[in-house]
Amino acid sequence: MATSFDSLAKEILDLLLHDLGQLETEVEVAALPSQRADVLFVPDPARDDERRTLGLLGRMTERAALFEPFHDAPGVEDVRACLRKILNHHHARSLSQRGGAERSWLLCAGRPDGALIAFRATPSVGWPRGFYDLGEALPLSLVVLSELDDSDDTLPLRLMGAGATLRAALYALSARQEVIPRGRSLNSTVVQVFMSARRRGLRITEDLMLDTTEAEEYLRQQRREGLREGLREGVLLVLPTVVRVAESRLARAVTDAEREALLQKIHTDGAEAVGDALVSLAPEALARWLTPPRG
Question: Does pTM surpass 0.85?
Answer without folding.
Answer: no
